Structure formats: structure tokens, C-alpha cells
Amino acid sequence: MPSTSCWCQPRTCPGILRRVPAFTVQACQRCVVVWPPCPMPVFCIRPARVSRFRGFFLRGDIPISRECGTRCVKHFIKWHTPPEQLNYQRFLPLFFDGLCESTFPYREFARHGVSDLLIAGTERQIFQTIPMLILPMREALNTRNPDIIIATLNALQQLLRVGPSIGIALVPYYRQLLPMLNLYKQRRVNIGDHIDFRGGRRIGDVVNATLELLEQCGGPDAYLNIKYMVPTYESCVYNRSNGCKTCVYKYKIAT
After folding, report:
1. What is the DSSP secondary-structure string of 86-150?
2. What DSSP line would sit under 178-245, residue for residue?
3. pTM of the predicted model, to two decimals?
4. Could you tell me whether strands 32-35 and 18-21 are parallel, antiparallel, or unpaired per DSSP bridges?
5. Which residue, 206, 209, 220, 242, is CA-closest to 167?
6. For 1-52, how does the pLDDT look when each residue is reduced to its tens digit (9 = 90+)?
7. Tell me: the pLDDT tens digits for 49-97?
């Protein structure tokens, strides 16, 4: 509700007060109505563009189809060409571009395709495609759709688990990926002693798990880069119990 400000004694101001914006010099004047500032649509879902993945799929350039029969219980996609024989520099960025899809069946094809390609590919094949994966992931995160963000972060976690060189190669791209994670990091719900039946589908928990995995797989410079983009992040690698920072990375750096 707008707040009324009238200092006239006795009241001699007109019947209709003048409307002024909040947090301005005009708000201190007489016979005015201060209107509250407009709310910022920070968490509003933005419409996603039509992905290149949909266009290539409708044109028949992607060798996949819907799996039918008894195998459809565990396998959503039927690959007409084995995933390990595909050109990863062409098809893996294409499937990552489909992560911004929210329409059936393109959404399922893209998400299951990313998972199958990351499982079948070697670390060297996937390492060569990392610069081409940053822009599709950033566009998917910028949609602000919780379902798309969770699917993108799950794909990022699976990408980090491919090999030790993947996490280190992603460190220079933290400035493109982490701003949206900083926005959703505090979107958590304190349920006390109740049971969480959503099964890891809360966006705040997925964001924190992704940040911890980025620090664990990103090498010695990962924490500083994460802290720069997400100031509220607390390290899960450095031990501060005894007042010092003891690195517990799985690998040792030769000095």
C-alpha cells in the first residue's frame, strides 16, 4: 500500500495527493503519496528459444529414436549408431543445446542422450568438446526454470565425473556458469526432522552439491574462483578445524 505524507497543519492540501517514487527527494515533500518500488522479477521463468537440437532431430540428422518394447523400461533412446562411434565435437554440444527444451519428447531425448554420450565417451573425446558446452549450459541456466536448471546441473555433475582433467578444464569458465548458481544457492527449505520425499529435486540442494563437486574436481584454484563468484560458498575441501587450511585433494601436486 502507498504511504501518505502530508504535513499541512491544518490540512490545506488538495484532495488528490501527488504520487512520487520511493527513495527519492520528492518522497520528503508535502502532500505526496509514496509508491513502493516495483518488484524485480529475478526468479521469473524466461521462455526458452527453440533449440538447434529440435531442428536437427526433426530433420533426421540425429541417429536416435524412441525405444519400444521391454528395453524401454531402462533405455529411453534407441541409438541407430553406437554412441562411442559418433563425432563428439558435433553431437555432444548439440545434445547439451537441447537441455533448454521443456517440451516432450525433445526434453527426454536431450537429457537421456547427454547421459548416454557421457557414459560411452572417453575422457579425451569429451575434453575436446568442453569449450563448446559452456554456451548451451549457460543458456539453459539463464531460463530460470527450476526443472531445466536441475537437469543442466545433473549433466554438469556427470561431466565432472568423467575424468580428473575435466574439472580443471572447467575452471576458466566459472564466470559464465556460476552467476546463476549464486542466485539459487539459498533456495533451500528447512524441513526440520521431516522426511524429504522430493528425492534431491530441490534446486538449492542440487546447486550446493554441484559447487562442492566443482571444488573437488577443479584443482587447487577452484575454491578461489568459486568464492569470487559465489561469496556465500563454504569450502568442503579445506579443513579449518585447527585454524589452518589443509588440502585434502585426491591427488598431490608436486612442489
Report:
1. S-HHHHHHHHHHGGG--STTHHHHHHHHHHHHHHHS-HHHHHTTHHHHHHHHHHHHTT--HHHHH
2. HHHHHHHTT-----TTS--TT-S--HHHHHHHHHHHHHHHS-TTHHHHHHHH-TT---SSSB-TTSS-
3. 0.75
4. parallel
5. 220
6. 455 555 555 555 656 677 888 888 887 877 788 887 777 777 777 887 888 8
7. 888 888 888 888 888 887 776 555 566 788 888 888 888 888 899 999 9
